[in-house]
């Protein structure tokens, strides 16, 4: 899903579910993408961190691989939450 697709979907008031595949190869994690910024940052809700942590991450970093609060991995799948 391109950043432009993310913008379009979120602008219509929808949320996206994303799958982060862990770099270790053992497992994955689901998060909710709830917003974006013009500088290609996306807002993620991570339910694995206590009270559901909300943070912004670079779109390209998530696609290519980055560290989030619950682990290190990359965005490999998207679900639309209609």
Helical stretch tally: 2
Secondary-structure class: alpha+beta
β content, as a range? over 45%
The low-confidence parts are none
Q: Rough shape?
A: globular
Could you give the order of strands across the largest sheet?
4-3-2-1-6-5
Mean pLDDT: 91
Describe the protein's architecture and organization.
The protein has 82 residues and is α+β, with helices and mostly antiparallel strands. It has helices at 3-11, 59-64; strands spanning 15-22, 28-37, 41-46, 53-58, 66-68, 71-81. Strands 4-3-2-1-6-5 form a six-stranded antiparallel β-sheet. Strand 2 (28-37) and strand 3 form a beta hairpin. The model has no long low-confidence stretch (mean pLDDT 91).
List its salient traits.
single chain, 82 residues, alpha+beta, six-stranded antiparallel sheet, 2 helices, 18% helix, globular
Could you provide a short overview of the structure?
By secondary structure, the protein is of the alpha+beta class. The chain has two helices and six strands.
